[in-house]
Amino acid sequence: MLHLFTNPTHNSGQVTRRQLLKMSALSTGIAGGLGHLPQAKAETHSSRGRAKGCIYLFLCGGPSQPDLWDLKPLAPSGVRSEFDSIATSVPGLHFGELIPQVARHADKLAVIRSMTHTDNDHVGAIVHSLLGQLPAGPGQFYIDRKDHPGLGAIVQSQRPQNSPLPPWIVLPRYFTTGSPAYKGQSAGFLGSPYDPLVFNKETKASLSDSPLTLGDLELSAGITRERLMARHDLSRSLGQKLTAGNTARAGEMFEQAFGMLVTPAVRRALQLDDESTQTRERYGRNEYGQSLLMARRLIEAGVQFVNVFWTFFDSKGCQFNLWDNHGVANDVCGIDGQLTGRQQLTHQYCTPSFDRSFSALIEDLSDRGLLDETLVAVAGEFGRTPKINATAGRDHWAHCYTQLLAGGGVRGGSIWGESDAQGAYVARDPVSPDDFAATILHAFGIDAESLIKDNLGRPLPVTTGRPVTALF
User: Does the pLDDT at position 30 exceed 60?
Assistant: First the structure.
């Protein structure tokens, strides 16, 4: 069930096209209420998104839906959030007080409150979420050429683009926890031509305003653009007859890589220094804010899919996920003193930074006219328990949690699904990680029944999920 909200005070009394669509949906399907809020039945036809690009923000560790998106103010003490609920830009829709700037953009968001799966372990849940389906076998967590392709690879295989920019980019680095990269971050059996470009930013001082380096796109010391051009001409003259089979494909990859190195438009897209001080401050002077700003620049330049991973590294490069807000003992990863779950959630580089940078991204995309064709997804591997634990935190909970979508044809100011009175289990319209992935593909106009061939030539569906088409 899709709950739709309208804001009668929006746009100084003028009725926008989006409001007309909402009012039309309401007039054809009023179905009762969520409290006093209207509900509209899901449309029976398959309306499509119009995404040309996607920014997929992953909050590593599992964000707390009972404190952010799905508060239960009538739940008993010990379940009810310690934080107050606040009004959003959508009448009747409330978020937690930790994200006031995001709340002002709720009219652009679709809130899915019925995400669910069964794995309360980080690694398995991460793989399921990023891959958009369960891996082929138990214990298979890390990228492998036999994998089903990640979403960025599927998009570029189904919607090829003619651009010198790589179609899929990962910021600020692969998502790992001291291990190889998790599945869902490679092209799998589609092969290396569809793999993402990874910035692979150093983990040291990751919370400072240190630059997002270009890695392999940086020219080596002593190599000028002119010298690179001369090498390119020599290489082409030597390889003119090597045009068959895999060699031809390698040549195409070489030309794409060369184009990325020498094309001014590509390098301009990667230069954050071109942004005003005001804009960089608005996003936040840390790797989270600057990664989201870089994501916007890349989308604007024509990149199709950008993953941004939000995880905490201290000044020594020690990883510690503040979104995983159990509460922690002394001296964990260089953080002095004990942190309660509440202190983790309110840490400078958790909800305050998210509120600032995510709201800046949505506002910036909207102001530039990019949001309509850019899907923005906010996800985690699971949510948090309804019950608050002894260290004022919440533990892993995959049975019912919340994720967000915006742009790309998604209906803003809407809610899909519902949790029960304490936010423990899905009360209506469950959505699996598979379905969420299928919904992202649907935003690009890619049918769930579309096929790709594995490395043995067998046709496989691009997704095992079913898209939530009523969100569009």
Answer: no
